[in-house]
Amino acid sequence: MKIQNAIETKLNEAFEARVLQVENESHKHSVPPNSETHFKVTLVSPEFEGQMKVRRHQAIYKVLAEELAGPVHALALHLYSPEEWEATGHTAPESPNCMGGSKKDPVMAARTAQGEGS
């Protein structure tokens, strides 16, 4: 959990987080057990008020540049202002399970081409 802890620490230090949930979703993907490669981040901060989604994402990418350049393969971001969070009923969308396989697998390549893969 050292990568997850680093993500949590960096985001807490960089943002005035009202809600911060960092979930390791690696178990949903085709990676070895105990991997820390796929994460879902839900972050609620007043700093996101009036900010476009792309700017919010850029801010996260900047803070987590080291992790994204190394061990983190995928990062699902759900970033809200406090008002937006209230409107969701305090829930972020669920992440889909991985379809498995790889781009070299003909079945997975076909699914990806049809928009079914992750």
UniProtKB/TrEMBL annotation:
Region of interest (Disordered), residue spans: 87-118
Gene3D superfamilies: BolA-like
GO biological process per UniProt: DNA-templated transcription
CC terms in the record's Gene Ontology section: cytosol
InterPro entries hit by this protein: BolA (IPR002634), BolA-like_sf (IPR036065), BolA/IbaG_stress_morph_reg (IPR050961)
Superkingdom in the source lineage: Bacteria
Coiled coil: none
Keywords from the UniProt entry: DNA-binding
One Gene Ontology molecular-function label: DNA binding
Protein family according to the UniProt entry: Belongs to the BolA/IbaG family.
Protein name: DNA-binding transcriptional regulator BolA
Source species of the chain: Marinobacter salsuginis
